[in-house]
Design a protein that fits this description.
Elements: H1 3-15, H2 17-41, H3 46-57, H4 60-71, H5 74-92, H6 94-122, E1 134-141, E2 149-150, E3 154-157, E4 160-163, H7 168-177, E5 185-197, E6 200-209, H8 213-217, E7 223-224, E8 239-242, H9 244-251, E9 261-264, E10 267-274, E11 291-294, H10 298-301, E12 315-316, E13 319-323, H11 330-349, E14 359-364, H12 371-408, H13 410-418, H14 423-451, H15 455-460, H16 476-502, H17 506-509, H18 512-521, H19 523-556, E15 566-571, H20 583-595, E16 600-606, E17 617-619, E18 621-622, E19 634-640, H21 644-648, E20 652-655, E21 669-673, H22 674-681, E22 690-694, E23 700-709, E24 724-728, E25 739-745, H23 749-763, E26 770-774, H24 775-782, H25 784-802, H26 810-817, H27 825-845
Parallel strand pairs: 2-12, 6-11, 8-10, 19-24, 21-23
Antiparallel strand pairs: 1-4, 1-13, 1-14, 3-4, 5-6, 5-9, 5-13, 7-10, 8-11, 9-10, 15-25, 15-26, 16-25, 17-19, 18-22, 20-23, 21-24, 22-23
Amino acid sequence: MSLTSRVRTWWRAMTRGPEVDAQVDEELRFHIDSYAEDLMRGGMPREEAIRRGKAELGSLAAGKENCRQAWGARWFDELRSDLRYAVRMLAKSPGFAAIAVGSLALGIGANTAIFSIAKHVLLDRLNAPHAEQLRLLMWTSKRDSAVHSIWGAWNKGYDGVYSTSFSYPIYEVLRKENRGLEDLFAFKGTGRMDVTINGQAEVVQAELISGNYYQQMEIQPRLGRAITVQDDRPGAAPVAVISDEYWARRFNRSDSVIGKTILLNLTPTTIVGVNPAGFTGAKSVETSPDIFSPLVMESLVSRVWDGSLLASPNRWWLQIMARTRPGVSDTAAQAQLRATLQQAVVALMKPKSGDDLPKLLLTDGSRGLNEAGKQLAEPLFVLLGLTGMVLLLACANLANLLLARSTARQREMSVRLALGAGRGRILRQVLTETMLLAVCGGAFGLLIGYVGRNILLQLTASSSSKAAPMQGTFSWGVFAFNAGLSLLTGILFCLAPAWKATRMEVQSSLKESAQTTTRRRHGYAGKAIVAFQIAVSMLLVAGAGVFLRTLINLHRVDPGFDVKNLILFQVDPPKSRYPVDKQPELFGRIEERLASVPGVDAASAESIPLLANDRSNDDFVPAGIKPRKGEDQTEMDDYVGDQYFATLHIPMLSGRNFNAQDTANSTRVAVINQALAKKHWGGENPIGKTFTTSDMKGQKLLFTIVGVCADTHYSNLRDDSPPVFFLSYRQAPDVSWGMTFVVRTRTPRATITPSLRAAVSSVDRDLPLIEVRTQQEQIDQITASERVFATSLLHSACWRWCWPASGSTGSPLIQWRSGRTRSGFAWLWALSRNACCEWCWARHRG
């Protein structure tokens, strides 16, 4: 029989079993009947002839079995039988099955979720062709750097400053003189922008890009066209390409979006393309901006600086990337661009004598700026260690359960051996049961990992943020590794005892005394695993206690103001409609409209929201006080409205608050907190004292202190209350970064938000409310990392410590049910661990 015929026959036997069995049965009956007829013609009675025929040719059942074995279908029949037997055996022990499957599901699911996120954040590359070829330009210099104005990422190291920001004129020089890389392209994530579509204003995340961006990234839009060099020239019509996610969310994937005009920071802009799904740009692997626009639109949409950044060599804000050039090493390309950079800095910026020139560095750009990877690397490594221990405990739990179950079933295996079963057949049956457990645990683990891939990211994200959230990806490779490790553990700890049991003498194994001897001889492995489980569980409980204590302490900290019944949101007016000198008037009108909303007790503006991990500082030089050598003459500040202290319930200790007479043309006044008063004036009354600070142009401004307020925590709850001075936003040096409005109301946020939105729209319909949230939600956001660690550790520890009869109690329980031990230790141990779980959970909830 040819191979094709054998495969065809096997396939028919597997897929059309009853039909093939009927055909085989019919053929076998034909042969038996034919043989019987031959005997009957010789004079043999019919009954004897049929009996002789069956004896000669065999029974019908044996014939069918031989045929299926010849076709290769017998193995699958036995597997089907083993599976049915395994299901019956597990159904007889539902507790064991639930514990084993639950342990596997928790270990596989938790590890798959965490490791998938870690892989995405730490290892995945940009979704662009040949991302490994991308290189990111950055620079470093000593602390006395020739670069003084940076908008973007920069870090101070022990050996100087590091940054990825460049000025646009510097970029043009580098691009023109570049010889070692492919064409340089530039981009800048501008953050939030206001967009008005069909009369409805909202906030989007935007990115400015150079005209050759799509060409060098080798990306083709899925709809429309890309931004080109012609779009990035002065005088070109404003255009934009939107992300696939924003296209789906805002335009319902309508093809009519191409050619549609929207207002981007009040600038009419035409949508010309839609990015392909999965493309996140050059900045980040995790999230994508909603809108991409040419760099030439910077002067139209930017709110950061006065004047155009494209013409200023002194303001460094632009990120630059390029692809490697074949045959040119990174070292050679870096050396050539470093020399070009320093020459350009000297020619364009005219640095002072002693200023250190920046040194260009060529780094891996396959992950973009990798800001999320840098911020989340340490927390993720902690979580990876945590979930690794969870998987380790799951494997140990399974191993202990299977060891106990195999030991308890030694008598069963001996009986089956005595009845004639082969050792290979018994091992295969045990392996089938283990595989069934692994498949069930893997299925539930797959569900946990898939559903839970975004839970931790949602815990750390702001519930009110309009930014595109970082999405957790599901890694099938990580799932396969975790499932394979768990399966290997099950096979090892299940087959080893089973193999040993099948090698024993059947007669001695059947004796009760031999059972006791066997139990004692095989008890050390189980005890060692139990000890390991207890040790690791105690480690998890101790770690959970540390983080939980930290979280409790943070919640007990008095922030210095009443956080209840406060709603916050941000308004960021575009400079094209509201120049800097017109913005204080706008903020005053918004304050008035908010205060008139029914249910609002008070409302005020502030430049820096408290307890938001945000801060601002300016120089603070008290008059008549000579600073010590090397003393830092900067202090934290905040620009606020007249009702700020009343809205937040911050007590005034002396002097007065701001009022309507404190205008841009009146004497400049300030309020300081108690910490600042003690720092500079000790026990002396600071009312009437003066100090100077600087505006954006470096001009000195004189302020008179008219009030002292109580101390409050500034950016977070971990640090002590810092010295802070408050200025009226009408007299502040610069409020062009927008303002946060604080509203005190007893009305729930969801109920009053439409009224607040209507109040702002009555002033300007194109001003959206940004990140509407309560003050408590703001605090929860800045303590998210502590909550994530405490919750993860506590839940993991409690589940592993108190899983019903798991591991250490599972073994005695299985043996007790099989009559192998009468000790009450299992039940006492389970009760003590459940009591520990209840105590930890009560502390966590309280």
